[in-house]
Amino acid sequence: MKKTYTLVFLLLTVAAMHIQAQPLTQEIKMNKFITELMAKMTIDEKIGQLNLPTAGDFTTGQTSSSDIGKKIVEGKVGGLFNIRSVEKIRSVQQVAVEESRLKIPLLFGMDVIHGYKSVFPIPLGLSCSWDMELIEQSARIAATEASADGINWTFSPMVDLSRDPRWGRMAEGAGEDPYLGGEIAKAMVRGYQGNDLTLNNTIMACVKHFALYGASEAGRDYNTVDMSRHRMYNEYFLPYKAAVDAGAGSVMASFNEVDGIPATANRWLMEDVLRKQWGFEGFIVTDYTGIYEMMEHGMGDFQTVSALALKAGMDMEMVGEGFLLTLKKSLYEGKITEDQINKACRRMLEAKYKLGLFDDPYRYCDAKRAENEIYTDAHRMAARKTASESFVLLKNEGNILPLKKNAKIALIGPLADNRLNMCGTWTVAGDFEKAISVLDGIQMVTGKPELISLARGCNVVADSILETRIGMFGKPTGWDSRSPEVMIAEAVNATENSDVIVAILGEASESSGECSSITNIELPENQRDLLRALLNTGKPVVMVLFTGRPLAITWEEKNVPAILNVWFGGSEAGAAVADVLFGDVVPSGKLTATFPQNTGQIPIFYNHKNTGRPLPEGQWFHKFLSNYLDVPNEPLYPFGYGLSYTTFSYSDLALSKNSIKPGESLDVKVTVTNTGNFDGKEIVQLYLRDMVGTVTRPVKELKGFEKVFIKKGESKDVTFTIDIEDLKFYNYDLSFVSEPGDFKVFVGGNSRDVKEGSFVLLE
Ligand code: BGC
């Protein structure tokens, strides 16, 4: 017996060594290859690897590169972005590997943010599915399609936490929660990179924007951020770290400053936090003209800011060419070292090696794949299903929804028959003309176009100047120059023979996204006028709300009986909307960002601190407590909120122990019952509160969730396991610790309506 054990043990040890040895040998091979290559490189060629110009198909700022072809031949380009199609990419790659001296292949990057040609919901919508498998699959499909079109690097996932819906880029992230944001970040990285980056259908992820970009002052894009390290470590950093832990190959620096130094020049952030504390081994790219912009930040002239960026740990410069134009001079003047250039160059070459580009620079240039793997029926079906899982039912008075397929529908609103505005922001490869509009979707799902009467009712916004600002990037909103009165009268007319009014309202695709900040997050008055007129008809009204941010729809919540929030669902949006409106899919999405009652409540988020003068729950105003004179503290809809066509009840919350010691764990069990008339999915959420700490702790923190399918009338037990890691946080010295004491546990279907238990963490 003993002998057998020893043998098995030996075999296992050898096998484990072998498994470990494999990546090690690969790493040794890679290092040797790169060392030999770098020995042949001139300083100019090394600096050239750090240069990332844009091909200019789609840009978000000044393009300061010219003669890109010539520069590629001279070895002055490391990668190119905003170029797509196998044909174009192959021909550019050919220049690099056939005409440049050292034949180093290029990286090809692109903002593949929520799908490629098969467009998935905007990330904020995607996050509301709370479905890690679907989210990972969406990134997998995006990677498959993008790589089939020649791209090998995506500027995604965007994991910036944000609590400010004025900021248009909330649309690109996963909402306000660090834990959920972290889980989503990991799923996205897994989806893009898979297990093997050298496969031709995986692409390198780029986590952005490091760091804190979502906390820009007043929600104005590119604005200053000022935050305590306590908050950075406990909240905003977590999703970036999760993505790094999941193996993301690259990181993008943010535009904003961190602790008084722009992220692009912030050595503490890049070297101490990212590389030393988190062990990040990939490369760091600046954001678009991030180096150049540091002159405006007041950090010095072009040469100075370029040197600062390199010294802070930037490996690649996106647009601006500060590295290309000034680093050599800085080297000769002793302002930077050759070692700093070498380190950056090595990381760029490593990325190319990891993608398998030195073995085959045309790995991602397979014209057959481009034909067969992009915008396939299967991918579109996946996008449609994912979209329907991202919708959040906010209100459904009198169970107006789901609708009957033979109902006569007045389909009203500027987004009802609007293919161009279905995909949402950052859809650089999407074919908007082909997107499924709500009108298309309803016709497809009911098969009864004759039952629909359509009217526009109003423009997306009343002001034509604003309309041109939100109609960018090939997504005009379809401005109608008739007077509001005429449009409303036409809409009311169209409702005459209908059983139900479905109003398709909200924002246009580009009302949110980069540089789309706003100061008032209510629905525009012209849309509300239309709603008033529709409600006055006395017919039931369902509002389908397109939006890239939480909106303050307090008036609508009071007056409109049913509200379905559909974000921007992607290329199949309209079909998914119809799937949910007619009950083929029962809605199950839950909000990942709090909806405020008005703009003035911002920032408002569920995991806030208690203050020394908290207002007791359910109360409004109390002199000298922390509240407002004019509006209660409560949000309109809390984090985690979302209804279904069925209802769920929670009972029998039970903890397996009243106390735990470090090293132990405890189970929290709850019974969830489907008490309504539909089978449905419920997202069960677990929150904790650490009651006493050496630093103040939030009133609630999400620590677990599970999406469960429960048939009508049935119950399911859901069990969460809490261990010591769930109880840890960064203390005043920024050590990650747990502290003994009382904890509360909350379980429920949103962050407000919860069952409560408690336990003690012992020494
Ligand atoms: C954005 C990035 C994006 C880059 C390249 C910038 O303006 O901030 O998110 O990846 O442009 O398109």
Q: How would you concisely characterize the structure shown here?
A:
Helix content is 32%, strand content 17%. It has 763 residues and is α/β, with parallel strands linked by helices.
What report would you give on this structure?
The chain has 763 residues and is of the alpha/beta class. The chain has 3 domains: 27-371, TIM Barrel (Alpha-Beta Barrel), CATH 3.20.20.300; 375-597, Glycoside hydrolase family 3 C-terminal domain (Rossmann fold), CATH 3.40.50; 648-761, Immunoglobulins (Immunoglobulin-like). Helices cover 32% and strands 17% of the residues. It contains 22 helices and 26 strands. It has a 6-stranded mixed beta sheet, sandwiched between helices. The radius of gyration is 27 Å and the shape is globular. The site of beta-D-glucopyranose has 7 residues, from loops. Beta-D-glucopyranose (BGC) binds at residues 60, 111, 155, 208, 287-288, 514.
Q: What is the assembly state of the chains in this entry? A: single chain
Q: Structural class given helices, strands, pairing? A: alpha/beta
Number of structurally distinct domains: 3
CATH topology of the largest domain: TIM Barrel
Rounded to the nearest angstrom, the distance between the terminal CA atoms is: 41 Å
- How do the strands of the widest beta sheet line up side by side? 11-16-15-14-12-13
Total of DSSP H or I helical runs spanning 4+ residues: 22
Average pLDDT over all residues: 95
CATH architectural type of the largest domain: Alpha-Beta Barrel
Report the top-level CATH class of the largest domain: Alpha Beta
What ligand molecules are bound, each kind once?
A: beta-D-glucopyranose
Strand elements, count: 26
Report the sheet-strand fraction. Answer: 15-25%
Shape summary: globular
Describe the largest sheet: 6 strands, mixed
Helical residues, percent: 25-40%
Q: Quick one: CATH superfamily of the largest domain?
A: Glycoside hydrolase, family 3, N-terminal domain
